[in-house]
Amino acid sequence: MGKMIINGFSEFQNHVGKELGVSGYIKVTQEQINKFADATLDHQWIHIDPVRAASGPFKSTIAHGYLVLSLVPFLWEQIAEIRDVKMLVNYGIEKMKFNQPVMVNNEVRLRVGLKSLNDLRGITKAEMDIVMEIKDNTKPAFTATIIFLYHFNKIN
């Protein structure tokens, strides 16, 4: 399935209450986990020590929850292209719940539904229900409602 193209605010409005799509899968590697640990100064052994993690509760290293969360913008870009936008701002996350750890070399993908779209005096607040799915796992890595602010060139 290709990327959904949405040409402006009024077209975006037509998708409220509907699923917008699903991204492709991306593999979470040990190298990526190690780099995230370096960037965030979170070097807990469950993330970066494969030998010790092998005898731990998950039998392997796991990705940082916030690493998996940080993949949302990249995966969202695969799902939809919102056109006629001057600027997009990450505004917030609500009802965030980590449900399942992402093991090293697991593949994850994003599923997005448009919960609501509101015009706030020329700025559009988009609330999207998201699910980060883990390949071959019935429980998602996390669920949340993300909020983006879209500054459209015009709202018609």
Report on this structure.
The protein has helices at residues 9-13, 30-40, 45-48, 50-54, 65-70, 72-79; strands spanning 4-7, 19-22, 26-27, 80-83, 85-98, 107-120, 123-134, 142-152. It is of the alpha+beta class and 156 residues long. The strands form 2 sheets. Strands 2, 3, 5, 6, 7 and 8 form a 6-stranded antiparallel beta sheet that branches. Strands 1-4 form a two-stranded parallel ribbon. Strand 6 (107-120) and strand 7 form a beta hairpin. The radius of gyration is 17 Å and the shape is elongated. The two termini are 29 Å apart. The mean pLDDT is 95.
Describe the protein's topology.
Elements: E1 4-7, H1 9-13, E2 19-22, E3 26-27, H2 30-40, H3 45-48, H4 50-54, H5 65-70, H6 72-79, E4 80-83, E5 85-98, E6 107-120, E7 123-134, E8 142-152
Parallel strand pairs: 1-4
Antiparallel strand pairs: 2-6, 3-6, 5-8, 6-7, 7-8
Which keywords apply here?
alpha+beta; 156 residues; two-stranded parallel sheet; 8 strands; six-stranded antiparallel beta sheet
Give a quick rundown of the structure.
The chain is 25% helix and 42% strand. By secondary structure, the protein is an alpha+beta fold.
